[in-house]
What does this fold into?
Amino acid sequence: MIYSYKIIIGAMVVFNVAYLTYNVTISFKDDPQTATTDFFDDKQYIIDTPGCRIENVDAFSEEIRNFIYKFDKVTCADSEPLTYVSRSGENVTLNINNSLLNTYSRFTVSCCYSTITRNHLAPNPDDDITFSDCTYFNDSVLISENFVFVKCTNFYHTVYENVHATLQAPQDYSNINAPNILLIGIDGVSRSNLIRTMPKTFEYCEKNRWVNLKGYNKIADNTFPNLMAVLTGMNFSQTSHVCNPYERGKLDNCSHFIWKVFKEYGYSTAYAEDTPTIATFNGIKTGFIHPPTDYYFRPYFLAANQLSAKYLCLRAHCTGSEKTGIRMQNLIKTFLSTTKDRTPAFGLFWMNAFSHEDVNCPSSMDDDFLEYFQELQKDGHLEDTIVIFFSDHGFRFGNIRLTHTGWMEERLPFIYVWIPEKFRLAHQEEYKHLQQNSERLTTPYDLYMTLQHILHLSNNSFVQSPSQGCLECQSLLKPVPLSRTCSQCGIPQAYCTCSTYEQINKNEPIVLEASKYFIGRLNEKVQSYGNASRGCSVYFLNKVSHARSLVIKSKSEQNVMVVVETNPEAIFEATVKVTYDKYYNSTFSLLEVNRLDRYAPKTFCVKDSPVQIYCYCKSLLKQLTNIFCNNKFYYLNNKLTSELRRGQCVVLH
Ligand SMILES: *[C@@H]1O[C@H](CO)[C@@H](O)[C@H](O)[C@H]1NC(C)=O
Ligand SMILES: *[C@@H]1O[C@H](CO)[C@@H](O)[C@H](O)[C@H]1NC(C)=O
Ligand SMILES: *[C@@H]1O[C@H](CO)[C@@H](O)[C@H](O)[C@H]1NC(C)=O
Ligand SMILES: *[C@@H]1O[C@H](CO)[C@@H](O)[C@H](O)[C@H]1NC(C)=O
Ligand SMILES: *[C@@H]1O[C@H](CO)[C@@H](O)[C@H](O)[C@H]1NC(C)=O
Ligand SMILES: *[C@@H]1O[C@H](CO)[C@@H](O)[C@H](O)[C@H]1NC(C)=O
Ligand SMILES: *[C@@H]1O[C@H](CO)[C@@H](O)[C@H](O)[C@H]1NC(C)=O
Ligand SMILES: *[C@@H]1O[C@H](CO)[C@@H](O)[C@H](O)[C@H]1NC(C)=O
Ligand SMILES: [Zn+2]
It folds into this structure.
């Protein structure tokens, strides 16, 4: 039949855009549970206080077992890197490891290096780097820039390429008794998913007195607002006003970034993110005109991404001969050794490469993280460094997200806090409070307050300011009240895990009404972006796949949460507030919208606009065939095929 042929073509178009992956072994294991169970709570609630009760959802619950598997560790190259960086005092040297030369070539090899600089004069400096001419060197050479690209050739071809951070030491000395503070983040990993995919890392943290904040609840949907809450204390509408990431220059002018405060108090600051195209402040946002921190690693990763890549989970898992995740780990160490004995260090190191696209993908890095934390400990770095090892939210789309477990996890990112012994002894009360708060409801705004509190403890001339997004939020080194509720700590109702929504019948009239209302508002939302959304299709309701309800005030107010599938094919979760008057007439308002399907391949027509999260590109539909079937108009997609084969269908060209 003619349409089944076209279906295949249509599906392949999408496939090519999204799934260009390198062949890497994936092993499926029958039993995914490899962590020792000593550290699991078997309590019914992880948080159980008068103000909040959070259900203890089993990380291996029956309904998600089919979605869990493990990725093998990836090997990026057969031999170790041919070049390495060493430092002695202020001298930073790039070296060739001569003992490896014959593994790279049988012939004479010569190497040259280029310095990499951010191009300040470019229209978009965050996306523009310049390489100097390549200078040949033998054995080793002194470097005076922060980043270099190195290339080695034999008589015939290039045998090796790499990018190194050759960080230059800070100019001044200051306040060296203050602790270093590292924010090490892995995007989109819930507490349960850490347990599932990184059991060794989880066990390391549990065994070594890292404090697990089990009731850390996200405050908004995706990365940007949740990270901004940590870095500025503001909520999304406030950042849109004063630190608008869609308006050029506003992020530079955003005086609220906490790294600016740390710099003012003598810290050296750093910010790195491993996947330039989807970085928190770039991607569809404007990025920075000037480097926001003393050490800014964007040029490093732009250059690393030009090396030949091996893909895993749709991202460059290997950039050249090194794992992207290990590059990040090494940069953190380099940052610490560069600043050591000169200034304290404050850095945000954010990883997307092995976690953003597949809920199981962090398993590929479990061994690496275990070894890394053990090394940091062995090298003494953990003696003077506070580490916040955390995420921004759980996994946000796909099959797992359609289950109750997935719904809970999406709202509960993992977070561990490492406090060095020296600090624990000097501030025993504060440390005790932190431990107690492990079982209280906490938020990213509290983390913002905590960072300020730590700075205040090392220099009490620093005056802390409240978090604007949540005036009642507080340092986690002080006791969080047991009576705390979501609304008291800036968590919108739709993301609150304290009060669980009840499953309701999806055929109830109110569910259909709320879904139709939502589709109307969704189309308006798309339209509201004006010309930017010209390429986006109008949505129709296809079906309601789940519905949950939370009664707020008996008889007069209810939140209805629906998961709807649309035509053309997208999946949204919407929270609609329903208010009833005395005649039981209802009025609706839209509280939250989340998109649950993988939308990047469907939204290439609006890549640089915030409308992306709501869009489905019309041009994609043109590549598919429209058909009329069972009295309904369909856009063809691979999911509908079997249903359509059974129906009475007319192909429309
Ligand atoms: C740094 O390099 C200079 C020039 O090569 C040399 O004189 C000096 O001793 C080196 N300093 C250290 C600490 O290695
Ligand atoms: C140089 O390569 C050898 C052989 O792999 C390795 O054992 C050694 O650690 C490397 N040296 C440095 C400084 O990285
Ligand atoms: C490197 O060594 C070779 C052979 O000894 C020599 O000819 C060349 O000039 C040297 N290059 C540099 C940049 O020192
Ligand atoms: C505390 O901060 C003030 C203001 O920046 C500075 O003058 C002072 O030296 C700092 N104190 C210490 C111990 O670093
Ligand atoms: C940023 O601040 C500077 C100095 O106050 C001002 O001149 C500039 O217009 C501001 N830029 C934006 C985009 O707000
Ligand atoms: C942000 O905070 C302000 C002030 O508390 C509030 O009016 C606004 O509704 C909040 N916005 C969001 C998105 O939470
Ligand atoms: C929108 O697009 C139309 C047609 O290309 C153009 O005439 C109009 O000026 C655009 N409007 C805005 C606000 O950019
Ligand atoms: C509410 O319901 C009453 C009784 O069913 C009806 O008369 C009235 O028109 C309704 N009001 C609105 C605003 O729909
Ligand atoms: Zn994120």
